[in-house]
Design a protein that fits this description.
662 residues; 2 strands; 1% strand
Length: 662
């Protein structure tokens, strides 16, 4: 073992290894800043360049990219309210409000310091437990993984806002959408309407961008201002680091959560940040600022999503079982350069394993330092008028969504889920709860089916299941206590101020609640058209959620509402009587027009026209500046698509013209 330590230490300190490691970090920074791509796209982009490279040098580039993406994807989450990847979705909840308050510097420095701590923590844990992790990982079967999905769902109570019923119903919508496509047990297609695109389900990147990014873009455009109201970014660079030190035990606990959950195959990559965020809320005494700009809401998910990479390497290296989508591509890269994951990684190739571990730690240090170095300039985008930024962000989001499956259906799904996100935001249906439901739906059903197949109902009596069940019960208890305290505090504040519920037009809320009920009713109907194993999961979900959503609808119809149910963001934000705020559907129609153009004219032509018309009409800049920005954006788009070997949609008219020439 000592020989392996010395060989690994000598390897990572060689100039060649450091050069390739920095190259991977640089590429990871670029990919991470690009919203919606994340580790899978970055690693896929890197793989073609690994042919013929020295295995250790190629490994350095892979590790550098894997390590830094969970750090650099924080930029868009904090600065623009757009999740950089699936692991930075929870960071949006408090990071973006801090940015809008002019505290972008504080949020970013806290995020990068937390990411550095989490990455180093994960590397240390991987170093210590690489030899004993095998029996621990093997102890987790389908039953235990199913219980962990329940633990993830228990976070919904924390993220439900003022109305637990709305939160659960929003989660049910996510579960219902996540059940769309083939049933894990039987392969039957559910709720697909004979549409080929829907048969494989909707990709997570499309759902994440649609439910979070598009509503925030539309909201900022309606207000016609920059993201941050402050003229300066503030002097929060050292304050963010101090926040991490002040909350060091929270960061440590969340990093531990990231290591444990990240090591579990197929679960950790997309949900670990939500579990950590929920843990932060549950264990905090003062919770009123969460979701409004609490720095702890940045520290918790950022500590865990970097630590999960160290945990995710455990099953990848020891068993050849990827712990997440990015680890699956990383596994392919290892095979490509001649390294075989498995038991040999802790015997004959132990020096390679420790080279990977320490390269991961070193890459985290380099990546966090690089992010802190450039963030002062990157953060200045928050002071740019949003009408100048919006066309570029829309182009990026459409591109990121399309590369998910490279089908125009990705763009249709993006707009559809974006409209759903706009309505959920307006009427107070928590979007994080929706996303948790979507992320966990497929795995939850698969693990439940496998657990019953292997152990029957007796799986509930397994020790691991009972331990995780107890943790889930504690999570629900803390969530309920938090909800009760919040309700009492809100009621006391109302009584003190003698405030009354503002009268609002309930018809839009009734229509949306009715739509939610119809979705669950159709899901229930569709489940009865399937076999028992193919339809039992959506049937149970839709039955329960139909009752809950009906409660909200009945209250609205009978006008027996309270603040929790009668929530309209148009009223609470003061948009109704503000002539400076554009109508809710105005920019939705702009996006729908861009979508129609992609089908008719093709993506590149439509984006060019969108840039020109939007910058001239909305940003009101000169023709020269408009053309310059459009050419730069198209050059960037075409270069990126070339390197990703991505053929952008050509459009109906271009296809007709090509066919005519033939």
């Amino acid at each position: 073992m000592l020989d392996a330590f010395l060989i690994a230490l000598q390897t990572i300190l060689t100039p060649t290894h450091l050069m390739y490691l920095c190259g991977g970090v640089f590429l990871g920074l670029l990919i991470g800043i690009f919203p919606g791509l994340g580790g899978i796209a970055g690693l896929s982009l890197l793989l073609p360049f690994l042919y013929g490279m020295d295995p250790i040098s190629a490994l350095a580039m892979l590790i550098g990219l894997v390590a830094v993406i969970p750090t650099s994807d924080t930029f868009t989450s904090v600065l623009m309210g757009i999740p950089g990847s699936s692991g930075s979705q929870a960071t949006v909840l408090d990071g973006f409000p801090l940015s809008k308050k002019g505290q972008a510097a504080r949020a970013l420095s806290a995020a990068f310091a937390s990411s550095l701590f989490g990455g180093l923590f994960g590397a240390i844990i991987l170093t210590l437990f690489v030899l004993i992790a095998r029996p621990v990982i093997l102890a987790f079967g389908s039953a235990e993984l199913f219980m962990l999905t329940l633990l993830g769902l228990s976070m919904v109570g924390v993220l439900a806002g003022n109305s637990l019923v709305k939160g659960l119903s929003a989660c049910g919508l996510g579960l219902c959408l996540g059940s769309l496509g083939g049933a894990p047990a039987t392969g039957e297609y559910r709720m697909v309407f004979d549409n080929g695109y829907l048969m494989d389900g909707i990709p997570l990147v499309v759902v994440g961008l649609g439910i979070f990014a598009l509503p925030e873009i539309i909201d900022l455009l309606r207000q016609n201002r920059s993201i941050s109201e402050a003229s300066e970014l503030g002097r929060g660079w050292f304050e963010g680091v101090k926040d991490v030190v002040k909350n060091k035990w929270l960061a440590t606990r969340c990093a531990a959560i990231g290591c444990v959950v990240g090591a579990l195959p197929g679960l950790g990559g997309s949900v670990v940040d939500w579990i950590s965020y929920g843990h932060a809320v549950q264990t905090s005494k003062d919770t009123e600022n969460f979701g409004k700009g609490d720095i702890r809401g940045v520290i918790a998910p950022e500590s865990s999503n970097n630590a999960k990479e160290g945990g995710g390497l455990i099953p990848t290296l020891l068993f050849g079982i990827p712990g997440s989508g990015s680890m699956a591509v990383f596994l392919g890269g290892m095979v490509l350069i001649g390294l075989e994951p498995g038991p040999a990684m802790i015997t004959t190739d132990l020096d390679v394993t420790y080279t990977i571990v320490w390269s991961l730690a070193l890459a985290n240090v380099i990546g966090a330092g690089a992010c802190l170095l450039i963030s002062k300039w990157v953060a200045k985008v928050t002071t740019i008028p949003y009408t100048l930024m919006a066309p570029f962000m829309v182009m990026v989001i459409f591109f990121a969504a399309f590369q998910a499956t490279r089908d125009l259906g990705d763009l249709v799904a993006l707009i559809g889920i974006g409209i759903l996100g706009v309505l959920m935001k307006r009427f107070g249906w928590p979007r994080p709860a929706f996303l948790i439901g979507f992320v966990l739906a497929s795995g939850m059903e698969t693990y439940l089916y496998q657990a019953i197949q292997f152990d029957g109902i007796e799986f509930l009596l397994k020790p691991g299941v009972m331990i995780i069940g107890a943790l889930t019960a504690l999570s629900i208890f803390f969530a309920a206590r938090h909800s009760i305290k919040a309700a009492k505090k809100e009621k006391a504040n109302k009584n003190t101020a003698n405030a009354e519920v503002k009268p609002t037009n309930l018809k839009p809320q009734v229509a949306f609640s009715g739509f939610v009920c119809l979705v669950f009713a159709y899901g229930l109907y569709d489940s009865f058209q399937r076999t028992f194993l193919g339809g039992v999961f959506p049937a149970v979900v839709c039955s329960f959620m139909l009752i809950l959503s009906a409660v909200v609808l009945i209250k609205l119809l009978l006008n027996k509402v309270d603040d929790a149910v009668n929530y309209d963001n148009e009223v609470s934000a003061g948009y109704v009587n503000d002539s400076s705020v554009t109508g809710l559907w105005h920019y939705v129609f702009w996006l729908c027009g861009l979508l129609a153009g992609c089908f008719l004219l093709g993506y590149v032509i439509s984006i060019a026209l969108f840039f020109i018309i939007f910058l001239l009409v909305k940003a009101r800049i000169s023709i020269a500046r408009t053309l310059t920005l459009t050419v730069c954006a198209l050059a960037f788009l075409l270069t990126l698509s070339h390197f990703m070997v991505l053929d952008l949609p050509s459009g109906y008219l271009q296809e007709v013209a090509s066919f005519t020439q033939l």
